[in-house]
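Re-run with default settings, no changes from the original entry. Doing this only to confirm the output is reproducible before filing.
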Amino acid sequence: MLTGPAMPDGQTTNGAAKRPFDLAAIRADFPILATEIYGKRLAFLDSAASAQKPRSVIDSDVKLYETSYANIHRGVYKFSQDATEAYEQARLKVQAFMGAASHREIIFVRGATEGINLVAQSWGRANLKAGDEIILTELEHHSNIVPWQMVAEEKGAVIKVVPVLDDGSVDHQAYLDLLGPNTKIAAFAHISNAIGTELPVKAMVKAAHDVGALTLVDGCQAAPHIPIDMADLDADFYVFSGHKTYGPTGIGVLYGKQALLDAMPPWQGGGDMIETVSFAGTTYNDLPHKFEAGTPHIAGGIGLGAALDYLTSFDWEDITAHEADLMAYAKEQLSQINSLKIIGAETERKAVISLVMAEAHPHDIGTILDRAGVAVRAGHHCAQPVMDRFSIPGTARVSFGLYNGRDDVDQLVLGLEKVREFFG
């Protein structure tokens, strides 16, 4: 039986010893970083949208398809047994990565978006009624807004929104004031994808619990950058996506406390989520399979396990110190460009800098930076309420991964100077 103990100190999700944090060696692990763009070295600064993949993740995909691919949980032959074992070992790695109490609390989904929709449609439709309140913040990604709007409209529930202050932080007192006896769930980001604000998640979870409400945390931007521990945070649900965590696309994780998941009805029907099926009625499988209908993204799950092995091969203190240095250096360098403004510059942020320039639209900034070999994201970043809050159409968003260095920042600044020259 799977048990999935948490990671011992000094080990990765696969039990190996920690690696020294060597930027040159890290970059060599990512084949795509050797690519030139318009004859210039690639400065990839869009990891908040989707991070690049290390060779170990790419190799895990190739190895599966070349040596042991088969459908899982069904076959009695060796390939099926091997693929099943690798897939379920990946679940244990996620459990260890998150500090979850049981592997049954780890549901594989297509991404964080599907995880939030699962909670909204399964828990929300079963538990919300007219007049119940759902608390969101102005910082949320669309995937943590629209699913709640859909279930609220169906059930007659009310959405209340926590405002964001001028410095980019969430108004915590306003959050506390919104919580009350009608609050049934509070859903919020761990780190904002749009401007990088880190929310006081542990305090927000406790405050919601104090009024009897549940919590869902969108951890997409947190999982690649800071350690996450469900025993410490005490969130009821937590989601993150594999592709932002150096893993494949099409795979993600929904963590839920086992008692809650046990009580929730299945969201989708099909193979593997059943125990027995007849036309007289159907009984459902145990967790986690109750929420995993049909053939899953087998290679994606195994690749996510490889990605977590890679990410946790480094000490978290080394990762956070490296990225904090990058953020400080970038903020210092960007502050020397007079026409540039960082949105929410005053608040504590992680791995994301969202900027605007007086001379140029964000899309123009992104286009000119591309010709300089710099990849950034331009637009509203699936977070239109954040843009509305700051009265801007969008931003050029710079986001870091563990493979970025000060030379990427320098290349960014040179590109932004070209923007000034072109539009100035």
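The two ends are 65 Å apart (CA to CA). The first helix runs from residue 23 to 28.
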